[in-house]
Amino acid sequence: MGRRCLPRHAFRAAAVSAPCEIWHARGDANVDAARNWWAPPHYPLRMPRQPSFYTLCALAMALIAPGPRSAAQDSAAAPYPRPPGAYEVEVERNIMVPMRDGTQLATDIYRPKDVAGRLPTILIRLPYNKSAYRFGAIDPAQFFASHGYAVVVQDVRGKFASEGEFRVYQGEMTDWTDMFEWAAGQPWSTGQIGTYGCSYLGEGQLIAAQQRNAHHIAAIPQAAGGNLGRVGRLREFWGSVEGGAFSLSLNFNWMPVFASVDKGARPAPKVDLASFLRTLPLIDMADRAGSPSWDWRNFLERPPNDPWWDAQGYLTEADSTGVAALQVTSWFDFAEEALIAANIFRTNAINDRARTGQYVIISPTTHCISERASRETVVGDLPVGDARLHYWDIYLAWFDRWLRGNVHAIDSLAHFQYYTIGRDRWQSSDTWPVKGMHETSFYLQSNGHAATATGDGRISLTPPTRDHPDSFTYDPADPVPSRGSAVCCTGNPKDQPGSFDNADIEQRPDVLVYTSDPLADGMELTGSMRAEVYLSSDVLDTDVTVKLLDVFPDGRAMNMQDGITRARWRDGFDTPHMMERGKVYEVPVTLRATSWYLRPQHRLRVEISSSNFPRFDRNLNTGGHNYDETTWRTAHNVIHHAPGSLSRVILPVVR
């Protein structure tokens, strides 16, 4: 198996004689000027370390150049170019479209110039300013319009030029439906509508799909996993929660800016993140930073079992859709959630289009930049090789198939395309889980001294027969620092996505470390991963964090995936259960999914602790709300390995 790329076929819109001037839009010098803040990157591409908030949220992130290169080298190593369109593009701006409650939403329409008749239509809705968000809205709109589509781009309710009040997801269910009906009724639209966009723009598409509007035919939701609601043990709720813990750095970086009381985007708080994120209580943190946010308080105060979440449009196992969806994501983002969403769309399909039209592409990169991978992609500090794919050809083929009715447009597209880190190549499958995958238990054991990488913690396929528990002290005043993984949008130089060396963290006495023997033949892991950790403690509540790593022969411990569970939610998210002192409890931890090949002589490693800060808020160990508290308790936690309480990780080994 290998890369499955679509060539450009004759199924594109009929060629015309118009000159190929793709990015030429009419009549708005301010928009043209707004584009100039982004500059083409140098290569190889290093996944960005989010040097500024606006750069981050605009998703045209600052890239780190490795040094001077020739133009030929840059061209050869760059992402595959977008196929040029045949049409010039004209834009109508700031059309105010009324919603059912009378609120008017500001809308731009991109269309191919001098093309008569009705056009298949693509809808993009965003909270980031339709007139300035080049990377996620303006450029894609220009691109699709240059290929013969009408593209509608809209500021969501309460943001920038639109009327109303903004709250995360507020009004999205009805606003999407109203926009489908409005666009389908325009004289330039065929009524066949697709949707496109990444992150918030992708999550909105999952909300739209749940409405089952007859005009919504196809979607390309990218990095949209934050829309997952009540699904198994997952509760994403906009990406704000994981395992019952609050995603502190993500929420603080986004909500005070884009979910502030301002209509536009408030400047990022002028605080020293390293020290400010340690302040308590959490509940008034946005206020103290000078950026009040209703969503910040609301998300903190509502536990995962609050029925309020169910009315906001989060995808659940019971939702049904009629939309063909191409989920595009990355391993250092919401990949597990994209796979789950695709399965829900397929399983609960109301028509053959949704039943057979679920596809997933998973790159090795970070949030919303799969298309910008280069021939020498680096994710965090890990080189992963040539991770390019002909995304824009695929996107055109996708909409040609579903909006123009070309039934053969995606014949060569596998249902699942995924990049395997370590093998550093694309693979494909028409089933998930992939063929040859076997869930395999790797047992954690020691002689009772697993703390630090110099301890005696080890991983074995054979379960231990005696319990030698490992203990550590978790002090909320000195939490384990976050390092890499599938984190998004923090704006914090010390809390970045990707894979990094964790060897220094493994010298902390509050980090238990379990390591396998060197692998003789290598091992591929492709699929979902989880841990079962048996915990006892002397506090009512604490957290369990688990990190999976690939240990290189030179000693680097590169993180693969990780997870967290707040112990009170160990039995599910319906009712919290506090712990009794000294009693042993099973705490399940979701480790999301990956495709990773550990090469021969590499070792598999698992870290266990009780904090991952500032990615997640600290559990103050009191059994209280955490968000409104300013004092804490130190926890003395014990991890068990006895028969009947076998701590283990369950991994998807491909043979």
How helix-rich are the residues, as a percent range?
10-25%
Main β-sheet, spatial strand arrangement:
1-2-4-3-5-6-9-10-13-14
Separation of the first and last Cα atoms: 14 Å
- Output the radius of gyration: 24 Å
By CATH reckoning, the class of the largest domain would read Alpha Beta
Q: How many strands appear in the DSSP assignment?
A: 25
CATH topology grouping of the largest domain: Rossmann fold
Q: How big a fraction of the residues is strand?
A: 25-35%
Architecture of the largest domain, according to CATH? 3-Layer(aba) Sandwich
* CATH H level, superfamily name of the largest domain: Alpha/Beta hydrolase fold, catalytic domain
Low-confidence regions = 1-70
Main β sheet profile: 10 strands, mixed
Structural class: alpha+beta
Shape: globular
What does this 3D model show about the protein?
The chain is an alpha+beta fold and 655 residues long. The chain folds into three domains: 318 residues, Alpha/Beta hydrolase fold, catalytic domain (Rossmann fold, 3-Layer(aba) Sandwich), CATH 3.40.50; 59 residues, no CATH class; 218 residues, Sandwich (Jelly Rolls). Helix content is 18%, strand content 26%. The protein contains 13 helices and 25 strands. It has a ten-stranded mixed β-sheet, with helices on both faces. Strand 5, helix 6 and strand 6 form a beta-alpha-beta unit. It is globular, with a radius of gyration of 24 Å. The N terminus is likely disordered.
